[in-house]
Amino acid sequence: MIIPRLILCIVLLFAGLFVFISATIGVNRFKKPLNRMHAAAMGDTLGLLLIMLSLVVWRGLSFVSLKLIIVLVFFWLASPVSGHIIAQMEATTNEDLGEIEVLKPDEDI
Amino acid sequence: MELFKVFLLAGMVIISILIILAIIRSAIGPSMTDRVIAVNMIGTMTIALIAMLTIYMAEDYLADVCLIYAMISFLAVVILTKVYTGIYLQKKQMKAGPEAIADNLASQPELRSATRELEMELPSETSSDSETEVIS
To answer: What total of structural domains would you count in chain B?
Structure first.
């Protein structure tokens, strides 16, 4: 009974760590701040979800699991707000914003 | 039981290394926005670290620390961003808002089309030279 749960927890934990690793690589290798924000927001949502899910599955139904879920919900509410504010700051203060590539709706990739 | 703690320890070590890499990015980031992004990501990874430490040490009060840290990290990002934008706009003698963004975009010639879209939404007194040079 405990072995499948252990395997599930380990898989979820390392999936979250993989997302965090790729977010850090993206932040370190992209060139423009808006691209870096894109990479960092991935770790904010998916990485934290996977790690919290692993811990909640391991702990089972308890008060600590409820608190961890509350942390996750609060962070999901706060992270888009901070992302919006950072992008607003970037659009306001960056004097060399450069060309922003936007795909038109009728354009093939 | 004890096997999962080994994996948690390995995960905490990996996250610590990632935090060090993010600190390096926040130190060498060319613009202020890069630093704020790196600080935001350090906050996220510290929340994950404290949550893993809660299960590792089996100390339940650390979940409260995790929640408080999430709030303080969000507040830090908001205050850093607002203060830097305020200082920047104080030099240009402007108020924060869509007018400041449109003014910044108008000084960059390759972004004229984006500026025009912003001006169509706003009642603006800008002259019509930007409307004649629409690229798309």
So the answer is: 2
Nearest C-alpha of chain B: how many angstroms from A37?
A: 6
CB B26 within 8 A of CB B42: yes
Residue B114's domain spans which residues? 97-124+131-136
Closest to B64 (Cα-Cα) out of A63, A12, A33:
A63
Which ipTM value was assigned to this complex? 0.85
According to the model, what pLDDT value does residue B58 have?
A: 87
Distance between CA atoms of residues B99 and B118, nearest Å = 9
Residues B63 and B115 in one domain: no
Q: For the beta carbon of residue A103, count every other beta carbon within 10 angstroms.
A: 8
Task: State residue B134's pLDDT score.
Answer: 47
Best residue in A8, A18, A20 for a mutation probing chain B (most B CBs within 10 Å): A20
Same domain, B58 and B113: no
Asked if the Cβ–Cβ distance from B25 to A28 is below 8 Å, we say yes
